[in-house]
Design goal:
Blueprint: H1 3-10, H2 12-21, H3 30-54, E1 60-65, H4 66-70, E2 79-85, H5 92-108, E3 113-118, H6 120-129, H7 131-137, E4 141-145, H8 147-163, H9 165-183, H10 201-212, H11 222-241, H12 250-259, H13 265-296, E5 309-312, E6 315-318, E7 321-324, H14 336-346, H15 353-359, H16 371-381, H17 387-396, H18 399-403, H19 424-436, H20 445-454, H21 466-481, H22 485-496, H23 500-507, H24 513-522, H25 527-544, H26 551-568, H27 585-592, E8 597-603, E9 606-614, H28 619-629, E10 633-642, E11 645-653, H29 662-673, H30 681-690, E12 701-704, E13 713-720, H31 725-736, E14 739-748, E15 751-759, H32 768-782
Parallel strand pairs: 2-3
Antiparallel strand pairs: 1-2, 1-4, 5-6, 6-7, 8-9, 9-11, 10-11, 10-14, 12-13, 13-15, 14-15
């Protein structure tokens, strides 16, 4: 080898940096051209090494795997090279000498090298034993030498990969999960690993390997664009640091952002996060497709029918996903995406990609939203852990931004604060999940969850006070969605003041009356508003991270809360006394003849079911149980008794969309009145199906409402809604021998707030001992525990 040739070899690192550094980073398509140029320089350099070491000998080839094999090598990416030989025309000693003449100049050039020497048979054996090596050999690419040798090995390895795909898939997925656990989510890291984290460049390689196995196809288009974005960032990182790094450290943010033409480093991180989310979502959905394909390859006689389990509202569970059973409503029903999202999230199932694409064809919701749409949106926020996957799917196909255009400004936006561990949009969702667990501590959990979703919506570019900015944005958003003035003003207050309690607790003298007065004035002397603000404060701090929620901070907030509650505790307005409804003459005639009378009418958000029947202990339980048995969801109810006739008004939803049948309800009530419980059989089956489903919120609560100003005892119950809950509460009252004189049933965001006016059978208020027994029994009923 000549001196000039050796010097050329040593300049490869500088050549690759020069090729990258002299090319544009901001022009569209520049990344592909830059990487093609880097590959050309590298392959030319390696081909010269190969020619010096091997000459024109047949049966030998130099091939690349890894980034060079995939044609996406960066300026300072490692070289992964394989010297291949046929095992016949060249001796082992000769091959080893050739390898040394290639490897040493690479090391001299200052580049990292992963190298091996193998025959075709050895490649197949290594691929069979080592999953990572197998995936690397799928990208085997000729640099110089025997083209047929390389093509034959690549073909054999690909054939073996496909043949063993079913057996190797579980191992691949286990390794994938372990890697993601080690390196975290790229989209949520301020110093992300562009290669190894969930949503990184290695996941793009896994997508290609799954497709190569013929188990499934993968999303295209947006994934390629996302991968190109991460590759551009990696290339810029190599250029500005002069090192082959994959970790984008804080110190490098500004330089990389400037090279890529971003206005600031936050824009850079937003782009990185958005790209990685696209890759992560594509990978997760492709893994499900591959797993489904593997399960489908089971020998069976006859055609394989899809196993569909109904979830309600036209959705079905199929192979770990929620799918639409029919596309008949696609493109016509604006609320179909909301209904589908609620059902899927409650079932903790992601919506399938095809279902998401179909839902994206739905028309936009009108302005303002219908009341039913606002109710469904609150239910979605209250759905618990299933929310994240469903929300991400909706976000990927653009539905979230159609619902909430303001979401685009915080989507994937980074947070520089040391206490935060998530991007702004992910933090908002994490606070929503935390607020679900506190929803029984407030009277309006729906408003708590909406405030949780919007509390940091003001963290947009250029905002100096994100609380004030967020309050203004929320006000516009809530007006468009259609919240009434009282609810809108309360949520806006919560967004504006979401930092006030913690700042006051940690920075003010809690023994100073002025401190308490400041908070009292902030919440307008309203205890429920304070409880909402307190719950939002806790959820926000816990979601931010362990630095934001410590035992010290929690203790200070508890001290402040105790002082506020002591002052505001007696200021809650009294409940209005129940009003007597007007009696229908036709209904009175039917009841007098010994038969219930039921009417059904269309109502906003569902159906209004009015039941007239002779008042009796257990009627409330029987009616509630019957409605649940028929698959109806009770949204609100008002119960009253006039001259011995019960007049119960129920607002219900029908998952199937059909109106409840009055004759069927009448028949069921008649059977239940005679002691025939068979009408509730389907309810018991639904209970068994839900057995073991964990509660999303905290402990159930039952307490006496003070200052009711009526002749009845007023009890309030807050718990997670579920099929048959009202039936269980009614049974509890019946066992106690307590008469439900009136009831006000409401459900907000999956949590019930039920108020019961109850008396002894003779019409007297409950004694203190009876009240204590009732509260205990009601809590047991909420938790599904029988009470003697």
């Amino acid at each position: 080898m000549s001196a000039s040739s050796t010097e050329t070899h040593r300049d490869l690192r500088a050549q690759r940096l020069d090729v990258a550094g002299t090319r544009e980073f901001t022009r569209p398509g520049a990344g592909e051209a830059r990487r093609a140029a880097i590959r050309a320089v590298t392959e030319e350099w390696l081909a010269e090494l190969f020619a010096d070491a091997v000459g024109r000998r047949s049966g030998v080839a130099l091939a690349a795997v890894g980034s060079l094999g995939r044609a996406d090598s960066g300026p300072l990416s490692d070289l992964d090279l394989v010297l291949l030989h046929d095992g016949r025309t060249t001796s082992a000693e000769q091959v080893a000498a050739m390898a040394d003449r290639i490897w040493y100049p690479v090391w001299d050039a200052g580049l990292k090298l992963d190298h091996s020497v193998r025959t075709a048979g050895e490649c197949r054996r290594v691929a069979a034993d080592d999953l990572a090596a197998a995936m690397g050999l799928l990208d085997l690419s000729l640099i110089a030498g025997d083209r047929d040798l390389v093509a034959g090995i690549r073909s054999s390895v690909s054939h073996d990969w496909r043949a063993g795909a079913r057996k190797r898939l579980p191992i691949l997925l286990e390794g994938l999960s372990a890697r993601h656990h080690r390196h975290g989510e790229l989209s949520q890291d301020v110093e992300p690993n562009l290669k190894e984290a969930h949503g990184g460049l290695r996941d793009v390689t896994v997508l290609a390997a799954l497709t190569e196995a013929w188990l499934t196809d993968r999303p295209h288009g947006r994934v390629e664009q996302a991968a190109s974005t991460l590759l551009d960032v990696r290339d810029a990182l190599h250029v500005v640091t002069g090192r082959g790094r994959d970790r984008l450290l804080r110190d490098d943010h500004d330089a990389v952002a400037a090279l890529l033409g971003h206005t600031d480093s936050d824009d850079l991180l937003t782009q990185v996060s958005t790209a990685s989310r696209t890759i992560a979502w594509a990978l997760d959905s492709t893994v499900r497709r591959a797993s489904q394909s593997q399960r489908a390859r089971t020998l069976r006689v006859g055609p394989r029918r899809p196993q569909l389990s109904p979830l309600g509202y036209g959705l079905f569970a199929h192979d770990g996903e929620a799918v639409l059973g029919s596309t008949q409503q696609v493109g016509q029903d604006a609320m179909l995406p909301l209904r589908a999202a609620v059902v899927a999230a409650r079932s903790r199932l992601p919506l399938s990609p095809q279902t998401l694409n179909n839902l994206a064809l739905s028309p936009d919701l009108p302005t303002p939203w219908p009341e039913a749409a606002r109710t469904l949106f609150a239910d979605l926020l209250a759905s618990g852990p299933g929310l994240l996957a469903v929300w991400e799917g909706l976000d990927q196909v653009g539905i979230i931004e159609r619902w909430l255009p303001e979401w685009a400004a915080v989507r994937s936006r980074p947070q520089r604060s040391a206490i935060h561990r998530h991007t702004v949009d992910r933090h908002l969702l994490e606070v929503v999940l935390g607020a679900v667990g506190l929803s029984r501590e407030v009277a309006r959990p729906d408003l708590l969850l909406v405030a949780a979703l919007l509390h940091d919506i003001g963290k947009v570019s250029g905002a100096h006070d994100h609380s004030e900015t967020g309050a203004k944005i929320s006000d516009v958003l809530l007006r468009r969605v259609g919240y009434d003035d009282a609810d809108r003003e309360q949520v806006v207050l919560l967004v504006r003041e979401h930092l006030t309690l913690m700042e006051t607790a940690t920075r003010r003298d809690l023994a100073d009356p002025a401190t308490l007065q400041h908070i009292i004035d902030t919440v307008g002397r309203d205890l429920e508003t304070f409880e909402l603000l307190r719950a939002l404060t806790i959820a926000d701090a816990k979601a931010a991270g362990p630095k934001a929620w410590t035992e010290w901070r929690a203790a200070l907030l508890d001290t402040l809360s105790s002082g506020i509650r002591e002052i505001l505790g007696g200021t809650a307005p009294a409940l209005p006394p129940p009003s007597d409804p007007q009696l229908d003459p036709e209904a009175l005639a039917e009841v007098a003849s010994g038969s219930p009378f039921v009417t059904v009418a269309a109502a906003t958000g569902g159906w209004s079911v009015t039941v007239h029947d002779e008042d009796r202990i257990g009627l409330f339980a029987d009616t509630a149980g019957l409605l649940a048995a028929y698959g109806l969801t009770v949204r609100r109810a008002r119960l009253a008794t006039v001259d011995g006739v019960a007049v119960d008004e129920w607002l219900v939803e029908s998952p199937g969309g059909d109106a409840p049948e009055p004759a069927r309800i009448v028949s069921g009530l008649r059977r239940l009145a005679t002691g025939d419980r068979s009408a509730l059989g389907s309810l018991e089956r639904r209970r068994r199906q839900r057995a073991g489903v964990p509660s999303l919120a905290g402990a159930s609560r039952a307490f006496v409402v003070p200052g009711s100003g009526t002749e009845a005892s007023v009890l309030e119950v807050r718990t997670q809604d579920r099929p048959g809950l009202l039936h269980d509460l009614g049974i509890a009252f019946a066992r106690l021998g307590v008469s439900v004189r009136s009831a006000h049933i409401s459900t907000h965001a999956g949590q019930t707030l039920d108020t019961f006016y109850v008396t002894e059978v003779g019409g007297k208020m409950l004694s203190p001992a009876k009240v204590a027994q009732a509260l205990s029994t009601l809590i047991d009923a909420c938790d599904g525990e029988p009470h003697p």
